[in-house]
TrEMBL record:
It comes from Blautia obeum. PANTHER family: CHROMOSOME 16, WHOLE GENOME SHOTGUN SEQUENCE (PTHR39639), DUF262 DOMAIN-CONTAINING PROTEIN (PTHR39639:SF1). Residues 15-182 form the GmrSD restriction endonucleases N-terminal domain. It holds the Pfam family GmrSD_N. This is DUF262 domain-containing protein. InterPro entries: GmrSD_N. Keywords: Coiled coil. Transmembrane segments: none annotated. Residues 238-272 form a coiled coil.
Amino acid sequence: MAKLFERKSTSLTLSEFYDNYQLGKYRFEVSYQRKSGVWSEDKKSFLIDSILKNYPMPAIFLRPCVNTDTGKTVYDVVDGKQRLEAIVDFIENKIPLTSYFAEDDFIDEANLKTASEIAGLTFEEIKRLNSDFPDYIKQFWTYSLNIEYLYEQKEELVASVFDRLNRNGEPLTSQELRNAKYNDSILLKTIKKLVKDAFWNDKLSRLKSVRMEDIEFISELFFVVLENKVLDSSPKVLDDLYGKYQDDEESIKRAENEYKKVIEVLQKLNLDFNTNKRLCWTTHLYTVFSFAWTLVRKNISAESKANLVKEFYAEYFSKSSNYEGMLKEYKDASSSRTRSETQRKKRLFALLSYCGIDNDNGK
């Protein structure tokens, strides 16, 4: 008999969902899920707009997990996290209904006045006008969610459902898809640990951590050490490297130790990232990391090159700079395709040459 994924379809009203939510019956923070806060307020409000008009939405996928000692069931939210969080935010008055609720061909003349009056209001504000808008309040609480229960015990297979759903639905970033696929791998666990290193405090603030851009960037740095070369950061290259090293414990441990040495060298360069915020752009962070990695490889002390590196970036970021020689090479390599292998090597070689270090890393 063919093996099929075990699942069951049912429905749940928003009232029933929120009762369960208040009882702590849902686990939103499963490892393969993306972080909270991905949806903007407008996108959340638009979902509420759709609910109050009784438009359909895609199914919510839940995985029942039964505690064999207590008999209590908790549900992992496999897919639909952002939608459920938007619903809770509306109930708890953290977001309003859309301001354009009435500006829709769906609203006819007979309902235009009522729709206009509740547009832009929070749920509490609508409820205060209960005598005027009982239909909308009832509609919200009785709105029916389509639920798919997944009974698979193996978490990696449940994670693959999340992956499949989101490849064809609400777009995930490449790193969010990797997180779904490799969430239990030694590689990703190591990278998530490295992201939390105190050295990166405030330096990655330009990246959207809710979309895992910080994890992707640290992955790029970690692969420099793992592969012993500067690399392109195209999705295919990163996907291939995640597949190659996912559970290569020996290589990962070796690279982690070397990576920590690189961070120590970076700290000894004593660059002022607070005063010069542009140094926190990933273009330059990747370069200075690669520079520190080169010092580790060549056994060159950070102290011997620290002043030259500071001088280079002070001149580079100066409004009066003429951009000649290595400064021009670096600037030209920072103007386009900044994540390509070629441009990254050019920037690194320009900085190395300025500091009097041979450019012998042809890899």
